[in-house]
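User: I'm new to structure prediction. If I give you an amino acid sequence, what do you actually give back? Let's try with this one:
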Amino acid sequence: MSLTPDESRFMDWWERDRHKYERRSRQLWLGLPVGAAFSIPILLNFLASRFWYRRADAVGSSQFNPVVLIVAVAIIGGFMGYLSRRFKWEQHEARYQELAARQKRSQLTDTEE
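Assistant: Good question. You get back a string of structure tokens that encode the predicted 3D arrangement of the chain. For your 113 residues, that looks like this:
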């Protein structure tokens, strides 16, 4: 069974661009929107707590260090962004390996016939 046109296009694209997407810095930059999707709700929840529970806000404000919150949110956002893009790269690589094996198997059966 040979590859479909979509699978062939994917293989061509991934052979050409796989090393470009493998770099850690690129994965981090491309994953930042996903990281922001995790980080922004944390910040919003912290800021909104001032309106929905005044006593917790009073206790939290007395022991609060904004630098710690900013650093923690940045680390969470960066880690989640990198992790999501790394996972996506691994999925593409696995699909490519499966298609390459299938193509090789198909070529071997074609030559035997």
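You can read the tokens as a compact description of the fold. Here is one thing that stands out. The longest helix spans residues 66-112.
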